[in-house]
């Protein structure tokens, strides 16, 4: 059997990163009828690292349009902290770039308008480009954010350019990992970005994934796991370059990469040079930096299963909060189900009264926490731990305690 090839540079992929086995699509929540029909599909969730360009990537056994269809259940606006993060970004960019009513901000993968609404409120013209029709409709109908329903790529960028559309600021936040053909996706920006325009990408930093064993951020809709090293190669292959970076706490540690045309006047910052040096020190420019990750992932699973066994032996009930994709990866890799975790609570009404893919744990509104009164509440979206603990601090009234499972299982008193 021939080795698969890198989705960017086409070199043979011979080095495993981690294999998480067969898993259902992480955002494919089941209705009661679908659960009863028992027709759920699972696919290999196997990641490898390219020894040439060092892009860490998942195999792609399922087409993108099967993941990002009209049933896609992720709506950014249901996380208050994420909307607040978007507003801080909008305020900072408007100030840094001097955006006015004559500017144009274009967001690719604009979801439900959670970010562009803040620019619109400032009187700055906006345009969203979003592949999922149901979230785009919310952006238009509820937030008045003009949105085109389309996958963004080189052809899309050329089409926008032909229509005279050009952005002073373009944003691709938490989308770069979601595209199967990362080169074709990035190629589109060079056509739409103004000569001195600024393009920002936000994405979880691969170095944090490795150092903090954040394997639950791996799922089928995340095709790539990104370092500065790998992203810079993709940018430069398409006439673009990074010039600045900010380190963000979001998604367990992300990069906000500021990019521009190769020929633009934007000067490279010391922050960018420092990050390059940090990745070099971590051996992300050699295969050595990626070896041994599987053993660390297996240790996280063993630690969590030991916690569940102890809770069961003591007659304690365990529930979870946050029907997040990362939670589905974690639960399915651990092989747990309704006999281990009685329910998952989530504020997103599009997920409530559904079942978690694979584990088939029922999803309820947060108000049901007070009815079920679990002894332990596992926080699946650990990146929102503080927000969730603040909202549900009252579980201590019945002796309930919070639990996190990454990078090790911790019971929080």
Give a written overview of the molecule.
By secondary structure, the chain is α/β, with parallel strands linked by helices. Helix content is 32%, strand content 21%. It has 15 helices and 17 strands. The longest helix has 21 residues, at 293-313.
CA radius of gyration: 21 Å
First-last Cα distance: 51 Å
Strand order of the largest sheet: 6-5-4-7-8-11-10
Q: How large is the share of residues in beta strands?
A: 15-25%
The coarse silhouette is globular
How many strand elements?
Answer: 17
Helical coverage, percent range = 25-40%
Provide a count of the helices: 15
* Class from secondary-structure proportions: alpha/beta
Mean pLDDT: 93
**Poorly predicted runs:** none
Organism: Phenylobacterium ferrooxidans
GO biological process, one term: methylation
Keywords: Methyltransferase, Transferase
GO molecular function, one term: methyltransferase activity
Brief account:
The protein has 15 helices and 17 strands. Helices cover 32% and strands 21% of the residues.
What is this structure's SSE topology?
Layout (H helix, E strand, L loop, with lengths): L14 E9 L8 H6 L5 E7 L6 E3 L5 H4 L12 H18 L7 E4 L7 H6 L4 E5 L2 H11 L3 E3 L4 H9 L4 E7 L8 H6 L1 H4 E12 L1 H6 L12 E2 L2 H9 L3 E9 L5 E8 L8 H12 L11 H21 L4 E4 L3 H10 L9 E2 L17 E2 L4 H4 L3 E4 L5 H7 L9 E4 L5 E3 L1
Parallel strand pairs: 4-5, 4-7, 5-6, 7-8, 12-13, 12-15, 13-14, 15-16
Antiparallel strand pairs: 1-2, 2-3, 3-9, 8-11, 10-11, 16-17
Give structural attributes:
single chain; 413 residues; alpha/beta; 7-stranded mixed sheet; 6-stranded mixed sheet; 15 helices; globular; transferase
